[in-house]
Design brief:
Distance between the termini: 63 Å
GO molecular function, one term: kinase activity
Strand order of the largest sheet: 1-2-5-4-3
GO biological process, one term: guanosine tetraphosphate metabolic process
Strand content: 15-25%
Number of domains: 1
Shape: flat
Structural class: alpha+beta
Oligomer: single chain
InterPro entries: GTP_Pyrophosphokinase, NT_sf, RelA_SpoT
Largest sheet: 5 strands, mixed
CATH architecture: 2-Layer Sandwich
Organism: Actinoplanes utahensis
Keywords: Kinase, Transferase
Length: 211
């Protein structure tokens, strides 16, 4: 096969590989949209502030595979990289994070594969979020594919801290940032966590618990 034909075939195979992740992401996004609309119409208040779906690029997949010493074959990538498709759900309050996660994972066609609760046990830098790996069936023309999707759930305050922490560290190795500044960022994460608790308490005192 000549180089041009080989490259064209590689792109075709890559697009086909990513296609099922795109479809899995669309399925999860639809489920979240339905939950948000139902809760709004029930009058109990929509706990979902906003949603951000994303599909890793080929460059991002390659970089992660390199870090994991994962061979660049589609079978290996499929087996070892479980966050090719991902969606971030930003909720109003901490309790909403767990409520939405429970609503999503108890649906019969969703298989919960793994959970990492960085709210209960934050990362050393202060990062907080609930990470789930779920599998959802995607019905293709000739088969059913169980597609893994990473679901990140966090509050507005957690999302604010994580987004700005990323910008502060952008193109900088956190290890070369002075410890004093790293400590300040961790303290800011703790401030955000306290604000989360305070705002939820105020909401509960005014409106009562969510129904």
């Amino acid at each position: 096969m000549d180089p041009d034909a080989a490259w064209h075939q590689h792109l075709t195979d890559l697009n086909h590989f990513l296609m099922v992740y795109k479809f899995g992401l669309a399925e999860i996004n639809t489920k979240i949209t339905i939950l948000a609309e139902e809760l709004t119409h029930r009058g109990s208040g929509n706990p979902i502030e906003h949603v951000n779906p994303r599909l890793k690029t080929a460059a991002s997949i390659t970089a992660k595979a390199t870090r994991l010493n994962c061979p660049l074959t589609f079978d290996d990538l499929r087996a070892r990289i479980r966050d090719i498709a991902g969606i971030r759900i930003v909720c109003s309050f901490v309790s909403d994070v767990y409520t939405v996660a429970n609503m999503l994972t108890r649906q019969p066609d969703i298989n919960l594969v793994a959970t990492k609760d960085y709210i209960a046990k934050p990362k050393p830098n202060g990062y907080r979020s609930l990470h789930l790996i779920v599998e959802i069936p995607v019905f293709m023309s000739d088969r059913v594919v169980a597609v893994p999707v990473e679901v990140q759930l966090r509050t507005v305050a957690m999302d604010f801290w994580a987004s700005l922490e990323h910008k502060i560290y952008y193109k900088h190795d956190p290890e070369v940032v002075p410890p004093r500044l790293r400590d300040e960022l961790t303290a800011a994460a703790e401030d955000a966590a306290r604000l989360d608790l305070r705002m939820e308490r105020l909401h509960r005192e005014i409106h009562g618990p969510r129904r």
